[in-house]
Amino acid sequence: MKDVFARLASDLLSVIIFLAVYLLTDNVILATAVAIAGAFAQVIYARLKGQPLHYMTYASLALVIVLGGITLLTNDPRFMLAKPSIAHFAIGAIMLKRGWMLRYMPPVIVETVPEYVTIAGYAWAALMFVIGAGMMAVAATGDLKLWAFYLMVVAGGAKILAFAVQYFVLWLIVTNRRRAAARA
Predict the structure, then answer these.
(1) Rounded distance, CA 147 to CA 153, Å?
(2) pTM as predicted
(3) How far is it, in rounded angstroms, from Cα 35 to Cα 161?
(4) Cα→Cα distances 112→118, 169, 179, Å
(5) Which parts pass through the membrane (predicted)?
(6) pLDDT per residue over 18-69, tens digit each?
(7) For 141-154, what is each residue's pLDDT tens digit?
């Protein structure tokens, strides 16, 4: 779980930098330039450390460059705020692959309730699309405080809640099936 949060923070680092600098300076150009520089620094740092760079790292860098460039040209922060939405849509699309979640589950769950894990995978994809759409709608308002609240509290809270519900439901189903098998 710690690795998931580290990767999420890494993927959102440029947006967090942008938001922090923008809120401190109220300067879109400076905030965007620092965010783009931060994204490049992140890739360079990973290369120097010999860390593998995944597809999402390069996609994140490309999004920062493209959306940051549009933000610089228009002086409108909403383009940078759209980056996490696009990332959520991409992740949701990846999660539409049948059974993607099975490799992340403990063997007892995979052996006992694989059909429920597949359903949970689709539910996660739907959640990513809903969060992305909500984030895009909030970004369109241009209200940075509302957007930051949505990103950190609403989107983050929804993922934590979904994880807890999934854990509880799968545990309950596995427990019931094991009891039924023991009685039979």
Answers:
(1) 10
(2) 0.76
(3) 30
(4) 12, 13, 12
(5) 12-41, 53-73, 116-141, 147-174
(6) 888 988 998 888 988 998 999 899 889 888 988 887 777 787 788 888 988 9
(7) 988 889 888 988 89
As a residue count, the chain comes to 184
Structure tokens given for 15: 């947006």
As a whole number of angstroms, the distance between CA 97 and CA 140 comes to 30
Phi, psi of 6 (to 5 degrees): -65, -45
Sort 114 into a burial class: Cβ within 10 Å, 0-12 / 13-18 / 19+: middle
Distance of CA 120 to the CA centre of its chain: 17
Place of tokens 């990103």: 151
Rounded Cα–Cα distance for residues 59 and 177 (Å): 42
Residue 72 makes CB contacts below 8 A (sequence gap 6+) with: 29, 32, 33
Q: Structure tokens of 110? A: 């995979």
Listing DSSP states for 86-129 in one string gives HHHHHHHHHTTSTTGGGGGS-HHHHHH-HHHHHHHHHHHHHHHH
Domain locations along the chain: 1-80, 82-184
User: Picking from 29-33, 148-152, 164-168, 176-180, which range would have the lowest pLDDT averaged per residue?
Assistant: 148-152
